[in-house]
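The freezer alarm interrupted the setup, so I double-checked each line after restarting. Inputs confirmed:
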Amino acid sequence: MKNGWQKFLDGEFDVMDFFPEPAEEPDLSREAVKEIRKEENRRIDEDPRTRKVVAFERRSFRIIYYFVAVVSCVVFIGVMLYGVSFLPRYGQENAWAAEVSRRYIEKGLEETGALNIVAGMILDYRAFDTLGESHVLFTALVLVMVLLRRDKKNQQSEVEDYYTIRNDAYFRTAGDLILSKTGTFLVPCILVYGLYVLLNGQLSPGGGFSGGAVMGAAMIIFAASSGFDRVDRFFSLKLSSWVTFAALGFYSFAKGYVFFTGANGIHNGIPKGTPGAILSGGLILPLDVAVGVVVACTMFGFYSLFRRGRIGGSGK
Amino acid sequence: MEFIRNFPLFSIVLSLFSGVLCTMLKGRHAKNYTAAFEGLLIAMTAAVLIYTNKEGASFTYVMGEFPAPWGNEIRAGVLEALIALIFLTVVFCSVLAGWRFLQIDVDESKLNLYFSIINLLTAALLAMTYTNDIFTGYVFIEILTLTSCGLIVVREIGRTTLAAIRYMILNLVGSGLFLLGVVLLYDITGHLLMVPMHEKILLIAESGVGMQPLTLAVGVITIGLGIKSGLFPFYLWMPDTYGWSTPSSGAILSAVVSKCYIFLLIKIYLRVIGTEVLGMVHVPRILFVLGIFGMVFGSLSAIRKKSINRMIAFSSAAQIGYIYMGIGLGGVFGYTAAIFQIIAHCVTKSLLFLASPRLAEVSGDSLLFKNLQGSAFRAKWAGGFFIFGSLSMIGIPIFAGFTSKLLFGLAGADCGQTSKFILTMLALAVSSVLNALYFIRTVIRIYSRGESGMKESVVIVPTAEGKIRTIRHGAEDDEKKYGAWSLSQQLTYVLPCLILLAVNLMLGLFAWVFVDLIERGLLMFF
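Predicted 3D structure, all chains:
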């Protein structure tokens, strides 16, 4: 006869068996868990008394849940509004806290060479933050690729595949005439406008992020109106990743150079240009172009990955 | 200016660039590149640590032509360099030791993306550690949040997707709250850099005008980073997140990512808010109580788990409670203890998360305790690592865990309030007993051969073609038969784990060297 300790060592029981743990069998497959749930529900349904109790439990849980959620939201909103009511009013200058912003407004043009103060702020004064911010976009692209790009583990079912192929084929041969004609007319206009916003970042509101978004939208409209086949002819995964690599690499090294020279007190030799001309603002224009290209590729990459799980042609 | 002062800049910008570069490489090349690059980063960070320690002062580095308060800045002192060094070492070891599992868990076409994510994560870790600007902190929090979701989702089983979505929602709530706090602070101070902001905050506290938004900002930042790091009421996302992801990801997420948020929080407390203002808004008292609750409830949740990974994940909640308790105790002793615990837990938890998947692998890929019976005999190295990690977690002398508990006791005695001292001691005692309860039980389980353990189970053997399932009969304890690894595979798993174990022992044996470094670093904060 074994004693308890021996049984414990042999794994016949575990100390924690006394604590029942609700429905958490991590090793089970999805089907097995479904079976267990079904069995549970069947047992609950059989007995009218348990059914009543379970229904009551679920209902009261739901009521308490909604009540707590609403109350905590209302309390949070109230506290925030109370705190914000002590801040300076909208449009009123807060002389107490205006040291930095005043400097940006008064000296921004002279120090950065950019007519658009916002561009000067994000790409010159606080360029390190923007370097991080453009890599946030790149990170998002990488994650969407991880999540949606087709591979051995992430396959569409055959039925879905069939419908995707059939839809694409339909739109290729007998696509909506009005849609495709309007698309052909609109896309060049939008692209030119996007380029304008992109290249004028140092002169007027706009810049890399907004211009890139407009250009990405143009490509999405083109893909939606004329089919992916025509986009695949000039835009492949290889091209997309090379362009992103070149743009972000240029960004990192250009800014790294400016940081390095600035911190070490070396003159960086980048001309500021004439304020108001298109070639002004030092590095702002090339950086805007780099950011714009990355944003455009990212936007179109998202659309393409969500639509069919790959960027560019199938490679067959 | 000495050339060494450029190293923090180089390491951040080069990590960002490596993230982009790795998308262009093939999986295996990306891994080799990342390993070499992390080695370079470790060397650079060690150089910064030695340099700042020798100089006896921290230095700020202007990012660009515009000095503070107009441009961005980073700052490196002994503490920043030490924390960065530990983080980098853990990331390096986790990636290398988890390489075998990565090949199985991650599809071949996406391996390079995994290393791209790792490099971006490294950049975010370094930038958040070195930053001297609160908004730079926010930008890199964004990168860290996204990349940590990527680390989970890359395994592509349904559960990791679910866990990543949950983790993402909670994390975004945290980021949003942090951003609200930054906006409020910017509105009342007009600065984003830490030093000028701190001066303005002192003036506000003196005059009393604008204290309400300041209190709100401190609270919102604390809750935001608390959610992200798993402070007491917000720790329930941990088991799914850590338990299902691939071993390298689990180790990095639990050991490094959550600690990085806490380090940023400590930096904001000490360098932006200041301890006096912090005391005025009662934050330390609340954190002290929440920390103690976390210590107890985290352990109680861990005890009830039947799967080894979920147990280790919940024990993280308890360990993070320790750190917040240290912040709550305050004073140099309290913060020293908190930061030592950050380092100690970082090193120990990654070791445990690397040992458990190997134990599971030789038990039919099952993480359940009942199947792990005797698994330490089937995977001898992993069993050894697990037992050492457990001892450190419980707080046995010569391991890091003991020193951190000792430091918490000292901090409690030093804080000057008898009630706080008694509470600290009680919490330490209860938490240690609970820790011992579930870790010793696990060690007994994996080290007892047992007659009624698994007589028959499915064993998954990785081969060149992929995974092959084989049925195992009888309770033979032969590592060679089940999930056999070649010598090079053994080495890539064992050597990084040995490094982690060595750091752990160093933290325990030469504790006072590290305590001295941390104290010196903390004094440089002011």
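Quick read of the result. The longest helix of chain B spans residues 158-189.
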